[in-house]
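Re: beginner question about structure tokens

> Can someone show what the tokenized structure looks like for a real chain? I only ever see the sequence side.

Sure, here's an example I had lying around. Input first:
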Amino acid sequence: MKIGLVTPYVYPLPGGVNQHVRYLYENLRLREHDVRIITSSHGLQRASEGDVIRIGKGISVPSNGSVGTVTVSPRYLSQVREVLEREQFDLLHFHEPFVPFLSLVTLRLSTSVNIGTFHAYGGFSPAYEFGSRFLGSYARRLHGRIAVSAAARHFIDRYFPGDYKVIPNGVDTARFARAVPIARWQDGTKNILFVGRFEPRKGLLDLLKAYRILRRTGCNCRLLVVGAGPQAKEARRYLQTRKLGNVEFLGRVTDEERDALFKTADVYCSPATGRESFGIVLLEAMAAGTAIVCSDIHGYKGVVRRGREGLLVPPHKPKALAAALAQVLADDELRESMARSGLERAEEYSWERVTAKVEEYYGFVIRRLAAQNQLPSSFHADVPSDPRLAVPAA
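And the corresponding structure tokens:
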């Protein structure tokens, strides 16, 4: 099939949705589909290149306790119409289909089979509450709906009720298998790793408070911090005023450096406070064979099994976080058991398996439309056969 993956966030800038789109693109191509990525430009990224088609300009805006993107263009209708007429997609797969405005305009003009994947999770959403009153016609244009977790499904179903297929995010297991620990931090001191944006919902300040407790109780450990964000100055000030040592702020790092840091860590810590639909970073820790301590929140409980791949603690509880970290750091057998379990668990989420599930869902939706005589006229590919009806080899 010819497939268009639509992301409202500026591709390939870092982010969970864009990472999902990247691996889905690569693995759908490996399965012999013709795939394009439809996104926007940002800064100096103005031209389309290769299989990446850019429409409009992305503007950063606050969203769900973080920073999101709204895409604008004075010529949206003509630009999107021109792309769709030229490319003749059999299927368009929208990631966060209701984020303004690229996804909405493309969905409105689409004459293809339309699939939507919903990644977000949160509490009450004024934007979705308001949008649910006006976006019903757009929601009805989706022939199939995917949520990346039960938490994400529960969240979106509150505003746009319907049938959602849960297909999780994936992880590149081979990439982490190739990673090598960083020698300079293999000195007998136990390493705690944090990777994330420095913003309240990621819980970095709670981790720093927990780290202070660990140091005061004599735990010989080091904290490696990867990322950047609005709380950077506050975090550094906390360390300086309390004279906490053995903390390395590493800033933004390359993918290869991040993979090596996961391999270097004795425990990965994610003290997120909520609004996490899945926790891709937890999968990455598992794929690297790293034990986990994380918050006991909806988006994480479906990924990390309590006591097997990691320990889960209530968010906003630095003392409980410190106790869990101390337990994992002190128990070599526990860490090794969590590492083995994590490696096995990560294989269940390999991108090969996740992409196979997505492709299978495409086929299910297309067969359903064909049976109802509702396949869009622009669909030119063969209708996929039902794998359940395959005749086993003799």
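Each token stands for a local structural state, so reading them left to right follows the chain. The chain is about 40% helix and 20% strand.
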